[in-house]
């Protein structure tokens, strides 16, 4: 039993060895003067400013504003993507009308539309919402559509024979059958959500992490800039963990076997 | 209704079925009594599965009618259940929930009872994917029988199983049929299986009925001489048809 515990602990520690070494190297390189503090601040300084901004509540406010923006866009873009994916997956007619147009729009990198969107929406909250929604829409649409089309038709036939129609067929067979694919779309969508938010917040902002980073750039506050990068990374990792948790919860029948 | 028209429990009258240009069933007429165990045998492509799917309501006849207790069957009927060649269990539902799928009103105790009848009571809460092929088909059988159907259609359900599991499943199906007294229609290419289970064997050849023979053996069926008599009789008919085809097309030539 002792041996079991030892390997469990080791497994938890080993992934962190390289990051720890890198952190150490970073600290040594920047405090020794090897790397100028104008290019890369010391980790200790970053931790200092982190504590300062947490204790005066600023960081929490910035994180709150950014997160709210990001997830509002996710709900709108993801919601529309999910509904359209459902419609086109279930109805051939709907797909015939809509899918080609959606694919055409998909091929335009949404970030490249920023100058156009600024003209249309200005530089307030709307443009950020539109950008994030646009970015999140496509992975969720594609994966929902694909997930529904890929369902084993023999299972659907069985469902019909056993008296499942309409809503019952949907909740018992179609939705669970496509859930795996939909959650893949959600994970991709979350990644694009943060990416788009970061860019959107550089367009113009009066709140949020991007605002904090832009201000820091004005005043050459390297430690705050590095902090903002780390905060974005942490938020990204957190949302990915949420998606993983959902996967484990809703796809128990797949994950429990492994 | 004509006076001399036969009216049994299940009436298939003069049914034609076309798939595009191909005529799969030719004016097929078949009357099945309530509680009969009918096996339909034939080569691949003879139309036996198509006939089953017509009764199940998964296809519609091009001409002719299929009536149950005097009423025309339109599409899927609650009193008819199907056991497919694959178990077709939903991987995201546990065994007990898969079985409950067959019920209009969910009842856990009845579902557990039927799972017990097929011998899988220890597996109620398992995911279907970890069960063996034979176990999965038994769950499918429980699902089919849980709603007490009047007719059970079996579409080559044992084809994918190994020989020993197949025999066990045949005995289970016979046992449940004797207990619950539903009408059973089994499509199979295995003549031995047909004789083991059915009270009547129908041989379909190119979309028409070529033989309709009653099996007068006591139950439970044992593979003895009488059994073999029926097997040979049916096989001769099936292979006999094939032989005449081969003779027509091939001319033997000897060099010596």
Automatic annotation (TrEMBL), chain A:
Source domain of life is Bacteria
SUPFAM superfamilies per the UniProt record, alphabetical: MetI-like
Q: According to Swiss-Prot or TrEMBL, what is its membrane topology?
A: Multi-pass membrane protein
Query: By its UniProt entry, which Gene3D superfamilies does this protein fall under?
Result: MetI-like (1.10.3720.10)
Task: Report the locations given in the UniProt record.
Answer: Cell membrane
Instruction: List residues of the ABC transmembrane type-1 domain.
Output: 63-243
| Keyword terms, alphabetized | Cell membrane, Membrane, Transmembrane, Transmembrane helix, Transport
- Tell me yes or no: is Membrane among this UniProt entry's keywords: yes
Mind telling me which GO cellular component terms the entry cites?
A: plasma membrane
One Gene Ontology BP term is:
alkanesulfonate transmembrane transport
Q: What is its main location?
A: membrane
Bilayer-crossing residues are 9-29, 70-87, 107-123, 129-148, 169-186, 192-212, 224-243
**Which PROSITE patterns does UniProt cross-reference here?**
ABC_TM1
Family to which this protein belongs: Belongs to the binding-protein-dependent transport system permease family.
Q: What is this protein called?
A: Sulfonate transport system permease protein
Organism equals: Propionispira arboris
TrEMBL record, chain B:
* All residue ranges annotated as the ABC transporter domain in the record: 10-231
Question: Per the UniProt record, which residue ranges are transmembrane?
Answer: none
> What's one Pfam family the UniProt record gives for this protein?
ABC_tran
Q: Name one GO molecular function term.
A: ATP hydrolysis activity
Q: Does the keyword Transcription regulation apply?
A: no
Q: Which UniProt keywords apply?
A: ATP-binding, Cell membrane, Membrane, Nucleotide-binding, Translocase, Transport
Q: What is this protein called?
A: Sulfonate transport system ATP-binding protein
